[in-house]
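Q: What changes when zinc ion is included in the input?
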Amino acid sequence: MSPDVVRRKRESLLGFFSVLSFFLRMRSLQKPILFLTLLLGAHALPLEFLIATRSNASEVDKPIVSLEGTGQTFQPLKEGTLRVLLVGGGSSHDFEKFFHQADKVTLNATGTVDAIYTANAEEAATRLAEADVLVLSANHRSFGLSPFQNALNAFADSGKGVVVVHAGVWQNWAPATGFNKRFVGGGTKSHGKGVFAVNQTGKTHPLLEGVVNGFEIQDELYRPTLDAGSTLTVLAETAEDPETHQKWPSIWVVEDPKCRIACIALGHAAEAHGNPAYQRILINAVKWTSRH
Ligand SMILES: [Zn+2]
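A: The predicted holo structure follows.
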């Protein structure tokens, strides 16, 4: 509450009691006017309190409500089929169109993947227990809370595959979650956009199988800053960013003692999700992280 609001509250209280004592002295009018005074006072005080509380409430104080789920479930287990949980939802992206519909079509077209999607943190935590690979692009605040973060770490500890795509490699949640450190090896705080080439760094890796070296993509040019202390390998990077005159990591893998982790900075919208190179990398990432 600002000092100004506190002062107005105090003045209003003093005013209320002085009016009350004045009418109490006028004994003939005591009962009806006392009633009216109390009625007005009782209404005026909470109203001012509400105004003061509302004007000081910030976005951060609002309760975090998870996004709607899809109710999608995996098909019965089938030999040779990978269960992939796509998790999206949040701001600045059409998660439903690209990270759900488009990527699901890409993965299911392989004939060896059963992909489902959710944008609900609790549903994601539940479905993770049945999945082989998580493809995470969500940036909604609900995914930064412990129900999802705990399920994610347990999933990774059990040796399952983790693929972090585009909005997922952003610096979305508090460092205390440990998410960026373990699953990204850093984070992204800015981006450019346009058509740019993605060049391989010379490493041979299953993630790059069938991917044309130097393919072009129309996309957001993410500028991930990777921690010097993390054990990771950058497999491909952007051509020089015209704004920063730097090359930025596009595809990398983070070493983890328990699981395989692949990060793909590409994938803002239709042009990227429809790009055959992006699709190939996504399929490769799912297969490699699942150890299949
Ligand atoms: Zn984006």
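Observations recorded in class: The longest strand covers residues 186-200.
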